Amino acid sequence: MSTIPDITHGADDIVVPFQVEEIDLRGRVIRLGRSVSTMIDRHGYPAPVARVLAEATALTLLLGSGLKFDGRLILQTQTNGPVRMVVVDVATPDRVRALARFDAEAVDAAIAAGQAEPASLLGDGQLVMTIDQGGDMQRYQGIVSLDGQGLEKAADQYFRQSEQIDTRVRLAAAEEFVAGDNGLTRAWRAGGVLVQHLPKASTGHRDLDPGDAPDGTAIPEPDEAWAEARALTDTIGDDELVDRNLSPERLLFRLFHERGVRVFDAQDVREHCTCSRDRIDGIIRSFSKDERRDMVEDGAITVTCEYCSSSYRFAPGEFDAAE
C-alpha cells in the first residue's frame, strides 16, 4: 500500500485498487495491454468490434477483481445491434477470456454511416452479469437494459438498482503501433476506472489517515462528496485511460491528490482459456454413439474452442473402444 504516485510507471495487465478517505470513495483502475490484444488478434475482429470487446473485458475485470472468493464472473450482452453478443469470462482473481459474435455486413454499414461507437454497435438488448461461486453455491444473476446506452452507463445502472451504490465507470480502448523486429505492428490497449461512494456512519469517524491530503482539508457533506468525485472522474480523457506512459498511480494522483488518495498493491491479470483436451473429451463422451457418429467429418471429430481458437481432433474409435 502506498500514497506515492507513479510506482509502477507504464505497467500493463493490472488492476490497481485505491481509496480516497476524505470523500468516502473507493475504486479500481485497470490497464490492459498484451492480454486484450492477444484475444483480439486471435480472431481478427474489425477495429470497432475489437473496441467493444476490449471495453467489455476491462469492465468485467473491474467488477471481478472486487470479488472476495474463488469463482467466476461472466458478462454477456444479448442485443439487436451489429455486435450481437459479447461474452467475457473472468475466473477470479486473475484469468480472463472473451469472444464476440457480430454481423460483418451490419458492422461495415455502421462504419460507413459513422455509427461505429460501442453503444451503437451493441444497440438495444440486455447486459447480463452472472456470479458463480462454484460448488453448491447458488448463482447470482443481474440483468440491465442496454437500449443504446453503452457499457459505462449500463454498469452505473447495475450498481444503482442491484446494490444501491453510487458508482461511476469510465472505459476506453484504442489501437496503437508498436515497434518490433519486423517494423511497426498494431496492438490493442484498454483501460478503465470504477469509483464508488460509500459514506460512513453519520459520526464522521475515519479510521485511516488521509494519505497525501494537505492538513486542514475540509470534509464535504456526503452528497457534495459524491458530486465532487463524479465530476473529477468525468475529467479523465480516454487517452489517459490507455496511455502506457501514464501509470494508474499517477493518474489517481492527478485526480485526487487534493483529497489524499491511498493506492494499494496492483493485482496482475492474464488472458487464459480453461479449455483442454481432457475437458473436450469428457464433453464428447456425454453424447450417444449415434450422436458422435454425426459429428465425424473427414474421419475425425474436431472441436474448436470459440474463445481461444484451439482445435482438438479425436479419432471416433477412441470413444467406441472405451464403451
Topology diagram in text:
Elements (H helix, E strand, L loop, with lengths): L13 E7 L4 E8 L1 H10 L3 H18 L7 E8 L3 E9 L3 E8 L1 H9 L5 H5 L2 E8 L7 E6 L4 H13 L3 E15 L2 E15 L24 H13 L3 H5 L5 H9 L5 E2 L3 E2 L1 E2 L5 H9 L3 H7 L5 E4 L6 E4 L2 H6 L1
Largest sheet: 6 strands, antiparallel
Spans where pLDDT lies below 50 across 5 or more residues: 1-9, 201-214
Integer average pLDDT: 87
User: What structural class should be given to the helix and strand makeup?
Assistant: alpha+beta
Radius of gyration: 22 Å
- Strand percentage lies at 25-35%
What string, H for helix and E for strand, traces the elements in order?
A: EEHHEEEHHEEHEEHHHEEEHHEEH
- Share of helix, binned: 25-40%
For the terminal residues, how far apart are their CA atoms?
Answer: 57 Å
Number of strands: 14
Shape: globular
Helix tally? 11
Summarize the structure.
By secondary structure, the chain is α+β, with helices and mostly antiparallel strands.
Please describe what this structure looks like.
The protein starts with 13 loop residues before the first strand and ends with a helix. The N terminus is likely disordered. The protein is globular. By secondary structure, the protein is of the alpha+beta class. 32% of the residues lie in helices and 30% in strands. The chain is built from eleven helices and 14 strands.
